[in-house]
């Protein structure tokens, strides 16, 4: 009986051993098959993955390159703008110095007089009265005073009419109530008067009946004034109408200023150096 039970246990162990071997064999077979399947799948998928990876890197590098290029362009623009500003400033200062000297020569201002040109920006113009007045961004705190002369380049454009703390109003030479003593190139003395015409036409009223004035002749301030020195350019004779006779002839004068595109003006400030020196003492 004992022998019989022993054989039975031996058979069971053999069966378990055989089953384990079979399972191990099957496991190894399936594992190899799975590994082969994974290798095959990797072989198929890897080129696609590599392409996707390459595309991703290319997109990333391209994006970084574009951002870097835009940054370089922006820095280049900023440098160009700074360079342009610097050149404009140098050129502008040079023009001011030349204008200062030129005006001194034209007006015959002696060294006892200090000539100072102040640049002012036009910050308001009324479209309904373009040739009457405009506003500038300089006032009392900038040393602006009433009746100071206002130029556009070398051309007389008007005078300071009213002064406030941080802005002033310029009365234009082309306004209806503006009068200034003037003289033509042919030494004809007269008065330049503004008008209410929409194109800024000026009229020259001669003090004599001589007929020496011609179209195209330049007109300047005569110096017979407490405000305007001699030699400021006003404009050119544009038309002479003698239809009503020599006595009542009409002489039109046009200045060279482009009012619509005028953005800044020069304030002519004349100071006595002796007074300035005494003021400092």
TrEMBL record:
InterPro entries: Cell/Rod_1, Cell/Rod_MreC_2, MreC, MreC_beta-barrel_core. One of its GO terms (biological process) is regulation of cell shape. Keywords: Cell shape, Coiled coil. Signal peptide: none annotated. The keyword Transferase does not apply. Residues 69-113 form a coiled coil. Residues 124-268 form the Rod shape-determining protein MreC beta-barrel core domain. It comes from the Bacteria. GO terms for cellular component: plasma membrane. Involved in formation and maintenance of cell shape. NCBIfam families: mreC (TIGR00219). Belongs to the MreC family. This is Cell shape-determining protein MreC. It comes from Fusobacterium mortiferum.
């Amino acid at each position: 009986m004992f022998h019989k039970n022993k054989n039975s246990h031996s058979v069971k162990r053999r069966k378990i051993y055989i089953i384990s071997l079979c399972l191990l064999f099957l496991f190894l077979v399936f594992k190899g098959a799975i590994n082969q399947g994974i290798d095959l799948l990797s072989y198929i998928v890897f080129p696609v993955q590599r392409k996707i990876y390459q595309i991703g890197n290319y997109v990333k590098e391209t994006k970084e390159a574009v951002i870097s290029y835009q940054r370089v362009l922006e820095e280049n623009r900023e440098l160009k703008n700074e360079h342009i500003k610097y050149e404009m400033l140098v050129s502008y200062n040079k023009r001011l110095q030349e204008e200062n000297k030129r005006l001194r020569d034209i007006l015959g201002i002696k060294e006892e007089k200090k000539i100072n040109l102040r640049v002012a920006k036009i910050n308001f113009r009324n479209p309904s009265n373009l040739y009457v007045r405009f506003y500038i961004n300089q006032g009392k705190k900038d040393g602006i005073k009433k009746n100071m002369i206002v130029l556009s380049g070398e051309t007389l454009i008007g005078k300071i009419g009213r002064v406030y703390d941080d802005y002033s109003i310029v009365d234009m030479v082309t306004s209806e109530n503006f009068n200034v003593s003037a003289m033509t190139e042919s030494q004809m003395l007269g008065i330049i008067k503004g008008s209410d015409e929409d194109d800024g036409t000026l009229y020259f009223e001669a003090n004599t009946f001589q007929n020496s004035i011609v179209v195209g002749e330049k007109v300047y301030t005569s110096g017979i004034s407490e405000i305007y020195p001699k030699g400021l350019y006003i404009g050119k004779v544009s038309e002479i109408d003698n239809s009503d006779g020599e006595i009542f002839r009409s002489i039109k004068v046009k200045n060279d200023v482009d009012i619509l595109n005028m953005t800044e003006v020069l304030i002519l400030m004349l100071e006595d150096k002796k007074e300035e020196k005494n003021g400092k003492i």
